[in-house]
Amino acid sequence: MRILIVDDEPSVAEFFSRLAAVHGFTDIDTVSTAEEAVTQVLRERYDLITLDIRMPGASGLEIIAVLRNMNPHAVIAVISGHIPEQIPDEILSCLDTILAKPVPLEIFTQLLEGALQVSDTMTRIRDLGGTPIAMTN
Predict the structure, then answer these.
(1) Nearest Cα to 16, choosing from 98, 95, 78, 109?
(2) Full-model pTM
(3) Is the separation of the CB atoms in 47 and 115 below 8 Å?
(4) Domain 2-126, what fold?
């Protein structure tokens, strides 16, 4: 499973990265801005994307739809200490969960386990068979 952690606080990104590593995950990338996240998602397909809201430049909320379009099967989790009271429905529809910092260890672990299950399911579906058949009228 490939993980992208987007947080402008290096200590937070490192903490989440180490926690994922403790649970056996090794394909972990961290970036500190929304712009870097978009660039990274253009290069790689991710199974789990954790995303802070308040960062220098664009906010995490501004790029959620882009991340979802680029990684339609990824689990996208907003993890922030600054969660707005109102989040537009079009943004909510692009993410899977919102967690307030500080995130309890057991909750982050459940997020990792859930994303792994989704990733494994998508891999099994992709491995089912051959080339997709184009539908014609």
Answers:
(1) 109
(2) 0.89
(3) yes
(4) Rossmann fold (3.40.50)
Q: How far is CA 120 from CA 22, 32, 38, 48, 74, in A?
A: 19, 28, 24, 12, 11
Quick check: 42 pLDDT over 80? Answer: yes
Q: From 23, 52, 27, select the one nearest 110 (Cα to Cα).
A: 23
**Which one-letter amino acid corresponds to residue 123?**
T
The domain ranges of the chain are 2-126
Residues 6+ apart with CB under 8 A from 36: 6
Q: Is the pLDDT of residue 49 over 70?
A: yes
Confirm if 17 and 31 have CB atoms less than 8 A apart: no
In angstroms, what CA-CA distances link 110 with 17, 19, 115? Answer: 15, 12, 8
